[in-house]
Amino acid sequence: MNWKKEPLGKICKTTSGGTPSRKNQSYYQNGTIPWVKSGELENNIITTSEEFITEEGLLNSSAKIFPAGTLLIALYGATIGKLAFLGIDAATNQAVCGIFQNENVSLKYLYYYLLFQRPNLIKQGVGGAQPNISQTILKKLEISYPDSITEQQRIVARIEELFSELDKAVDTLKTTKEQLTVYRRAVLKDAFSDFEKKDSIRNLTMVVTSGSRGWAKYYSNSGALFVRIGNLTHSGIDIDFRDIQHITPPDNAEGVRTRLQPNDVLVSITADLGSIGFVSEKVEEAYINQHIALVRFQNPVQGRFMAWYLRSEYGQKDLLKNKRGGGKLGLGLDDIRDTPVPIVDDITATEIVDKVEEQLSVCDSIEKTVDTALAQADAMRQSILKQAFEGKI
Fold first, then answer.
1. Are 53 and 35 within 8 A, CB to CB?
2. How far is Cα 58 from Cα 91, in angstroms, rounded to an integer?
3. Phi and psi torsions of 32, nearest 5°
């Protein structure tokens, strides 16, 4: 058995689709022809589409019908290199290239080879914020393949066997992550279930205010931290500084008003309602944007306790009961001020927080291990494909 290496364009025919003019509704209204866009390619078999076009739209554009069984690959933006098989006859837009049946290389083999080559194709993307690859780039891609269709089928079968075993392991890991989420909720529910005596945040705080608007002009590459909603974590209260913006704040009252202090509690008030953050002693100088509220308790010792309470099922229920708005819900500062929180002494507050964080630290450690294993599973897929196309499986 011999292995060959040829450009994709020499092995099989390829062509991209097209988009009927959006200005002409007759090209889309009551359409019956499935019209697939690149975002619908998810390493899947496509049996329907999000949009349909008419015969008139097909005839008056570069769109064309690809037969069921065609292998599709995305050419544009974040979807570059994503793949799917057509399970139906369908047209596509210009961001999708169809790869057709041929006598030399099975499409299933090409599917896995292109999956292996996706990182390489992404690197070849050209353009600005949405880099693209062209059919020219795709056609020049060198395909390594055995000249026997039977051997190609054997390689595909072995890849799918190994991927199936890997999928089972990944499913177990994902189930573990789901169980950890349930466990976190249970820990907080147990910690804050016995507090009947409560008072409103309004009566226990020095300040409840929102962050500053229009501070993009103060952005810089270094300096003070500027906390945004994305920096409030979904599983804990410590701020995530991995994607933090820096600013050079104004030297005025507005700068003073929104400067954070240790033990402040942060609450998202627009997107991701109810996300909670806590300002630790480690933060030297930081500010917040207008989508976050700052809650500063009179007794700063209890700030961390209050943050964990507001993260709990009980705190979230009371905090979010007054959310308002139509399509985009939000919280007003008075909604936060009116939220009831437990009345507790400092010793009890510290004991509860210590216990919660001890239990959740175990959870965090397990999750870190799971995330590492999931990342390794992705690397393992590439390793399997690499060995397959080197004739080693």
1. yes
2. 8
3. -120, -5
